Amino acid sequence: MKSLHLLSSPILHRFASRSITTLSSSLPRRRIIVRTNRPSFPFAILSRPVSSGKVLAMASSSSAASPKHTNRLAAEHSPYLLQHAHNPVDWYPWGEEAFEEARKRDVPIFLSIGYSTCHWCHVMEVESFESEEVAKLLNDSFVSIKVDREERPDVDKVYMSFVQALYGGGGWPLSVFLSPDLKPLMGGTYFPPNDNYGRPGFKTLLKKVKDAWDTKRDVLVKSGTYAIEELSKALSATAGNDKLPDGLSRTAVTICAKQVCLQGMANGGMHDHVGGGFHRYSVDECWHVPHFEKMLYDQGQLANVYLDGFIITKDVMYSYVARDVLDYLRRDMIAPEGGIYSAEDADSFEFEGAKRKKEGAFYIWTNDEIDEVLGENADLFKEHYYVKKSGNCDLSSMSDPHHEFAGKNVLIERNELSAMASKFGLSVEKYQEILGECRRKLFDVRLKRPKPHLDDKVIVSWNGLVISALARASKILMAEPESTKYCFPVVNSQPEEYIDVAEKAALFIRTNLYDEQSHRLQHSYRKGPSKAPAFLDDYAFLISGLLDLYENGGGINWLKWAIELQETQDELYLDREGGAYFNTEGQDPSVLLRVKEDHDGAEPSGNSVSAINLVRLASIVAGEKANSYLNTAQRLLAVFELRLKELSVAVPLMCCAADMISVPSRKQVVLVGSKSSAELNNMLCAAHSVYDPNKTVIHIDPWSSDEMEFWEEHNSNVAEMAKRNRDSDKVVALVCQHFTCTPPVSDSSSLTRLLSK
Description:
It holds the Pfam family Thioredox_DsbH. By secondary structure, this protein is an alpha+beta fold.
């Protein structure tokens, strides 16, 4: 089985935090110890505590013609809040109306945070929030607030940090009890409705909290206030120095380096072999049975990592998987206007008219279904994907502990392709062709099943991750051998089509979520912009995507916008005294913590991405602006010096940023030629065909007054190169480093050789 070494930071430089997180199930998070004198409560953090199959009895939306209950969430746009709009619980959205009600009634707040494709959020809704008994307990003694963590990551961060600090773990649904002034009192994640296995049920918990509020309120409130004060100190570090000590960046990235078997993820059940894309994570150590959600942030990061795998190895297995992910997004996740949707649910109805949803129902197969659909090719397909009459979720005791998938199969590839082709007496090409035909037939059958819920929010930060992957794919995939043929679900589209999708997504954000006057973003869009302002991640991830869009052939307008957004980011989030970026503007009094995030988890941290953005921008512009970018990046990294020294595995992308900034001089590839020239595209492909994370690609059309004006203002050296190498018959490439440039070359093969030295 092939493997890739992430040594000396190759793949880690492209958001590989996603891969490492997936590999290790969960990375260590910063452990903040907050000690409080609080009353003793029964408490449990449960990840997958009971079988959910028996409780997920969700009514079909088509059957709810006249709902019995309607609460304030019915007026919201968030798919997650709308899912709870007809609970008997008297839910409020996060806002002053709810806070004022709690103060007026002098009762605690119950805060429930989740997202629309969260499996255990659905379970808790069915078990507790649809229960009249539970609703009465909540309505009588609490003000209940629902928050979509994807719309308000700032609110989620405050109370998730509290739960993780106090109890050592967290997750969604996040269930926290607050005082009317929003201080946390206690919390957890999923709670079953009734006491079981010595653990308290949610109904018991509600009664205990009410009793404590009535009898021990002062102790509760003091402990909550103290917890927030301690968290505020712990999560807003400042720099002790202006930059990292010499040698630390190399030490950190070496310690953080891991061996990732990307092929193992692609072969496993967390990869949707029939429809493309990846599920959120595997519940076992075999990469087999996944948690079936599909999240946009996973797709963007994984596509980027597989693109890197292809550049480094030239193995088309990696380019196939990158295409697989991006073609899934193009088919299922892109709005007509260009924005890219957030997620698909893990749960769906098994058939039309079913009374309840089941996890994975859309994706799993019985042996008989495979036989019926595939006919003469069924045996070949079943052997290739480990399909069994009894079901195949038996590779690990962790795969299906509650036997929810008995008799069902999650497709997984366990044998080498060439060995399987030989066994059936077929060429590898013919064998792949048969598998592709089989997958297409299953895909067509699957389309007739009830689809999982689609969360059609467009989130700026997650779109930024995918814009990056789409833009890079448009040039990197041009290095595939001309004879390469792919089978379904890959579409075999021309790579250049991907940058069109990227530009359309970027344009959607600029048109719908950006104020041209204030230069500020909004966080998300669904039937209009969200009420929440943008956060650090929105700026950082979008800037990264725009830089990739420009470097891979996009117009100068994308680079201009990236620089403009960086200025706004610095204005809103940069701690100019202490260094690094806060995750919020700090203007909302209901958000009690202003955090400097460093953890590269399921999503990279805004600070890690920002550090890399600043290094890249410093290589594009010149003079004082370049120095300012570098100084900001160095001070940012110095804030997290202790983290890089002691727990570098928790900050893999920040390790990459530290490694990048330690390089004395980045390589600049400057391409001079007409935008309309086909040769410019070839030269761009050559510039991106050699892996080098410490390389910047600049392209300039010397006949464009707009571009020449930009470079005269931001880097006169580039403008001068364009003037000296202006030639209407060809495109000229120069490779510059350490203040010197190579002699110009004018064909793509010469540029590739130059970059390969």
